[in-house]
Specification:
Layout: H1 12-20, H2 22-25, H3 35-45, E1 54-59, H4 64-80, E2 84-90, H5 95-101, E3 106-109, H6 117-123, E4 131-134, H7 139-147, E5 152-157, E6 168-171, H8 183-193, E7 215-219, H9 232-245, E8 250-254, H10 260-267, E9 275-277, H11 284-292, E10 296-300, H12 303-311, E11 315-318, H13 324-327, E12 335-338
Parallel strand pairs: 1-2, 1-4, 2-3, 4-5, 5-6, 7-8, 7-10, 8-9, 10-11, 11-12
Helix pairs in contact: 4-8, 4-12, 6-7, 9-10, 11-12
Length: 351
Amino acid sequence: YLKRDDLSAPDWLWLHRRWEHRASTQKRFSLPEKRMALEQTNAINGDAETPRKTRLWVRMPNWLGDVVMALPLLRAIRKARPDFEITLIGKAAFQPLIERLDVGDGFILLPPQGRGYFKYFYKVRREYPDTYLLFTNSTRSDLEAFLTRCRQRMGMVRPGKKRQLLTHPYHLPADIDETTTHQTRVWELMMQQYGLSVPMDCTPLPRESAQGRPQVAMICGTENAPEKRWPIRHWRALIEQLLAAQPVVEVLLFGTPADRAITDQVAEGFPEGSIQNLAGKTNLAEFCDGLKQCNVVVCNDTGGMHLANMMGTPVVIVFGPTNPVRTGPIFDAPKHILKTEGCPVTGGSAI
């Protein structure tokens, strides 16, 4: 462990105290007591900036929207712990997005499912992660963390659940109503329990003013939840009214390959040049660029909603059975939520 890099041995006393006192490990995301010792270490080693030698591994969520909603907290951790070397763990599809956000120093791809899946995590124990933070809630991801032999494994335990492989569980208080509390705020409560005092940063990414022909993006599908989709006839009616009012507008249809059947029906019969059907034709990076250049995005409750909101693009979201209070857009950018008449604030009505 001490030989893993040139900075570990000179800082051994500080490293040792970190493990010795359990109370201090509970405040993992804060440096109120160690900051002076850290500054002294920097002076001894001649470091102008704090070396990132404390290894935090973060198991990212499995869904795109949740990944985006975790960004404000990753920003806060980065600011609170400049000595953290942050490695994010997640699906390969998310890597292009993660690399753009500048919240991590490395990215570990989840291995392919199969016999060697868990063996991979046991193998990387030689990387010696110091702390393992889990945004996920599954036994599978808990076992992943356990096999790395990381001594501090942190995650949320909801009432009635068991996560026995965590060493530092955060038990969600029974008085927290998750139907009226945003998911990112719930995660923030967990981080504060672990000592995070820096507020989460919900600033959208820098965005230039849209130029040229006005563009309106539409995300008509939802990969795994058909009940969240606005009917195709409504999308077509919206496009007809939009083109009648603003003939110069170009409509961009985004989605996954599975959404192509939907976008083909939405685009059918409209004048050539008025619609670009891009469903299934963009990777995640290109999807982000496309959303960023648009004047507005109209969408269902889906991962693209969170991406557009993170990019600072104004969004109009059609919510039905899902809860906009819990999973609505979190970044400080223009947003407007549409629900059916009489629908509760927390959603629940058919679209």
